[in-house]
Specification:
about 325 residues; mainly alpha; Arginase, Chain A; two-stranded parallel sheet; two-stranded parallel ribbon; about 35% helix; chromatin regulator; histone deacetylase activity, hydrolytic mechanism; Ureohydrolase_dom_sf
């Protein structure tokens, strides 16, 4: 990880503790399991902690129309179907490329059951590289749904965690501002494994395969290992089929005018974050939460700050 890289971590415990029932497809518990693995591997010490506040309507109005903001307040689990009828109408997968002014701005990659690491990562790299070349984005949002992992209760792919995380590594190499989120995944212990490994990829930290002791360790029995291998269900994605998908997607991208080449510039934060000089700080004063959240443990540090050093000196 480059010294100038700024990596922030956000976890909402209120979301992770929601329970919808034993047979409900939503599994927020996987967020708690992931968070505790991140803590167990001490990855949080290498990231800034992000603590956002919930957006107020006036803040949402900066990006959305007033009608849309009002619409959000009317959506509940009981009434959402009233507003999503049009959104649920879908055509053939191959035709999902957008409509009218947005035509060709939606990219769909229809894979069949059983795709493996090699086929998936090669296709992903080819397509995402061309997408970035064509759009020249200022930032990327990468949703890491894990229902493509082998053994998922609802998924039907053969991906290992290594194969899944390789896609994160590919996107990271573009060196663009990157927001990585969770997504689907219904074998929750494997989802937690996957998202922890991918947090390590973003931090360029190789994690031991033996899972450390943590609050959810029993879920990872009997082998307590971090990685899972590829699956062995039949792969219905032939080389010719993969080739045809690649040709079709790349052909669709040809219809989009390339974005002009503009030099990347750092976007200033929405609020002022004052810098501070550690040498000027009063050691007798308590460090505030904001300052603690911004502290990052370097790989070449062998103790956890001055307090840890003082503690060791007292033991001598």
């Amino acid at each position: 990880m480059k010294p100038k890289d700024r990596i922030s971590y956000f976890y909402d415990g209120d979301v992770g503790s929601v329970y919808f029932g034993p047979n409900h497809p939503m599994k927020p518990h996987r967020l708690c399991m992931t968070h505790h693995l991140v803590l167990a591997y001490e990855l949080h010490k290498k990231m800034e902690i992000y603590r956002p506040h919930k957006a107020y309507p006036v803040e949402l109005a900066q990006f959305h129309s007033a009608d849309y903001v009002e619409f959000l307040h009317r959506i509940t689990p009981d009434t959402q179907h009233l507003y999503s009828e049009e959104l649920s109408k879908r055509g053939e997968f191959s035709l999902e490329i957008g409509e009218r002014e947005g035509k060709f701005y939606s990219i769909n990659v229809p894979l069949k059951d059983g795709i493996d690491d090699n086929s998936f990562t090669r296709l992903f790299k080819t397509i995402i590289t061309k997408v970035v070349e064509t759009y020249q984005p200022n930032a990327i949002v990468l949703q890491c749904g894990a229902d493509s992992l082998a053994g998922d209760r609802l998924g039907c792919f053969n991906l290992s965690i290594d194969g899944h995380s390789e896609c994160v590594r590919i996107v990271k190499k573009f060196n663009l501002p990157l927001l990585v989120t969770g997504g689907g995944g219904y074998t929750k212990e494997n989802v937690a494994r996957c998202w922890t490994v991918e947090t390590g990829v973003l931090l360029e930290s190789e994690l031991p395969n033996e899972i450390p002791e943590n609050e959810y360790i029993k879920y990872f029995a009997p082998d307590y290992s971090l990685k899972i291998p590829q699956g062995h269900i039949e792969n219905f994605n032939s080389k010719s089929y993969i080739g045809s998908i690649k040709i079709q997607v790349l052909e669709n991208l040809r219809y989009i005018q390339h974005a002009p080449s503009v030099q990347m510039q750092e976007v200033p934060p929405d609020f002022y974050i004052p810098d501070f000089d550690e040498d000027k700080q009063n050691p007798d004063e308590r460090v505030d939460q904001h300052t603690q959240d911004k502290q990052i443990q370097r790989d070449d540090e062998y103790y956890e700050g001055d307090n840890d050093n003082d503690h060791n000196m007292e033991d001598v």
